[in-house]
Specification:
Blueprint (H helix, E strand, L loop, with lengths): L1 H21 L1 H11 L17 H6 L5 H9 L3 H4 L5 E6 L1 H5 L5 H5 L5 H9 L2 E3 L12 E3 L5 E7 L2 E4 L2 E9 L2 E6 L7
Parallel strand pairs: 1-7
Antiparallel strand pairs: 1-2, 3-4, 4-5, 5-6, 6-7
């Protein structure tokens, strides 16, 4: 009797699977799922605390950084749960780079180089201001290290000054005055 029930169950499962494969509606659904639209960044939520991308997008001092994050295709990554510590250079920091550098990095053919630079500004985990200790080394998303500094209350990452910090729903943003360049 048990064998008969098992055989009937297997036949039913097989039949349902076969029917779903042949059913045009199920194929349509599969196409819809595989051709999903924009990622996590397209979710509209005016109730929750803002994430690192939303905060940077609202800052008039971070328009170049936001444009770079978009050009590098990293928006959907940075709106996820994280947590992230983002070292966010202000627009003036990008102005300190040699002329034409930003424009060149924003070109599609330089996307991977831009991603490497931006990933050098992100640590997976939260490093709040009180956790910045002199000589602490962090391994960034691009797998290269930065060194934090804390001398007489002056906080730094590599040779950039941390000039402010903002808590986000998915981490913390440390505003910095220089662009960090991977070595």
């Amino acid at each position: 009797m048990k064998t008969k029930i098992i055989v009937i169950t297997i036949v039913c499962i097989f039949s349902m699977s076969f029917w779903m494969c042949k059913n045009p509606q199920s194929q349509e659904a599969a196409v819809t799922v595989s051709e999903a639209g924009p990622g996590q960044s397209s979710v509209q939520d005016d109730q929750s605390e803002k994430n690192v991308v939303q905060i940077a997008s609202e800052s008039p001092d971070h328009t170049t950084l936001v444009a770079a994050v978009k050009a590098a295709g990293l928006v959907d990554v940075l709106v996820n749960a994280g947590p992230f510590t983002v070292f966010a250079p202000v627009n003036k920091a990008f102005d300190q780079l040699p002329a034409g550098t930003v424009e060149s990095l924003l070109k599609p053919e330089n996307k991977r180089q831009l991603q490497d630079i931006l990933e050098y500004h992100v640590f997976v985990g939260v490093i709040s201001e009180d956790m910045v200790t002199d000589g602490r080394v962090l391994n960034q998303v691009n797998l290269k290290n930065v060194t934090l500094g804390n001398k007489d209350g002056k906080l730094t990452v590599n040779d950039a000054n941390i000039i402010g910090s903002v808590k986000a729903s998915n981490g913390v943003i440390h505003v910095i005055d220089k662009v960090l360049l991977p070595q």
